Amino acid sequence: MALRDNLIPPPGLPRRLATQNLLFGVGAGTFLTGSAVFFTRVVGLRPHEIGIGLSLAAAIALVTAVPLSALTDRFGAHRMWTGGVVAQGLLFAAWPFARGFWSFLLVIACLELVATVGQAGRNVYLIEALDPETRVRTQAFSRSWLNVGWSLGAGLAALALAIDTTPAYYTLVLLNSALLLANAYFIGRLPRVPRSAAAGARRRVGAVFADRPFLAVTAVCAVLTCYMTVLMEVAPLWLLHRTDAPKWWLGVMTVTNTLMATTLQVAVTKGAHTIGGAAAASRRAGLVAALGCPVYLLTGATSGVWTMVLLVLATILLTMAELWQSAGAWTFMAELPPADRRGEYVGAFRMGGSAQSMIAPASLIALAVTSGGWGWFAIAGLFLGAALLIGPAARRAARSREQLAGVPAPVPA
Asked: What InterPro entries has UniProt attached to this entry (predicted)?
């Protein structure tokens, strides 16, 4: 029964939101698994053009995150979430017509922009629709179901890659387009929630950049999200170039991560719905991530079964960091912003993640793999520093929030 409680969300809005995320995961998993092949075979790009285009699109999303997310404060979370998903669905339907670098850049940049709007709308909707404890558990269920959908989508993509024809590759993007449009209909039927009394007022966008305590929390959380770069990019390269583990062991590591993210995400959110609980969860994330780094380093000196076992152990530690960091970040993003600027603050929080995605891959790969291994200690130091800083940063941001509001932050409707 306990396992069921951690896998199946309660009926009502939590289950509807998890179902919506499952649909999204199927489409996203289908496209992203086969996207590299689609871009090279259909759009006609060379590998370096794909990298340049993705980096430019990420940079555009980074600098526009706050003004675009602030549209949620002006026009409402439900409307912007629905509109953002509709726009994504229509843009994915345009992929079969893209040819060459410039059309690729246009579509991928537009997708980043509307995804920013849609994601801000979704986050603010959850903040306004659910109380803190229910919200964190609902986010956890949604993330678990997203992983299930992602796995299903990856299987569909594998089938298209096995068929290896242009129509099969068109299916990758058109299926995602159809699922996004179905998702938009699904989202449109979710219940409306009351907005803040100050919502919709015209105001100068950018006040979040003067809120240094909140930006400090955002920066520390961005460092903690480096677990993602370690799991997805650094560890695979380390296995291939610095260990004697077989290549297929990467699949075992991926399955380990996916199973843990699916079955444990809800359980580790207990107590993370308060600022103090979120700080404690984030601290644990930094500590276990720091512990995982020297375990990766050890695999460069071991051989055979020991190497394979240690790689799985490191994956378990970094996956626990992923689960705890996610739980903490959801609460920080919900409880620290002013009620009438939630979209703007969500956009600033997103900027931290975007910056990490731009800077961390090359930096951490150079530290760990190119250095020969000593850089794992530097990466561990980053995680340890973030673990030590997140508590004081969160307490300072909470005090600042209360001082600005004059009273403690209101409980969401």
From this structure: MFS (IPR011701), MFS_trans_sf (IPR036259), MFS_Transporters (IPR050171)
